[in-house]
Write a structure and sequence with these properties.
The protein is mainly α. The protein has one domain. Helices cover 41% and strands 0% of the residues. The chain has five helices and no strands. Helix 1 packs antiparallel against helix 5 and helix 2 packs antiparallel against helix 5. The two termini are 28 Å apart. The chain binds zinc ion (ZN). Zinc ion (ZN) binds next to loops.
Length: 152
């Protein structure tokens, strides 16, 4: 199969495999599939941690707080009205971008071969010419015994 030349952003937002751009990245709303159902890429490398939540909170905090302040100033509602307007809006507006953000981060992790840093001991075999920052099988989870599998 000829892999599609798509950016991590495009594949990630669509929830597609970072390698082939065809297979599904997610099994649930936010749970990753174990591997690509088209090209077989093992998604064990993927570890966006709480990056999606951080970006969603950071981006959505301003509009929702702005809305809450405007709503309170303009209508002076009793406090419980915020429980049925602002709070549900907050949940929806923060949850909605989580999936595309997580897809984008996982695809970027694959694309840029990003991984957790680890020490290379002096007596270890030198595989990548002095450093292990690039050119290594960075996404081969078998090469990193301490790495956890399937973080989500
Ligand atoms: Zn794939």
């Amino acid at each position: 199969m000829q892999p599609r030349e798509k950016s991590p952003l495009s594949n990630g937002i669509r929830g597609r495999c970072p390698r082939c751009g065809e297979g599904k990245l997610f099994r649930g709303f936010l749970k990753l599939a174990p591997r690509c159902d088209v090209c077989g890429l093992d998604y064990g490398f993927a570890d966006p941690a709480d990056g999606p939540a951080f970006f969603a909170m950071s981006a959505m905090a301003f509009p929702i707080v702005g809305f809450a302040l405007w709503f309170d100033a303009a209508h002076e509602p009793p406090w419980w009205v915020h429980l049925v307007t602002t709070l549900p809006l907050l949940v929806v507006i923060c949850a909605a971008p989580l999936r595309p953000l997580k897809g984008w981060l996982v695809c970027s992790q694959y694309f840029y071969k990003a991984e957790e840093g680890h020490l290379i001991l002096a007596d270890a075999k030198d595989e990548a010419g002095g450093n292990n920052l690039g050119g290594s099988p960075a996404l081969d989870a078998e090469a990193q015994p301490g790495r956890k599998k399937d973080p989500s």
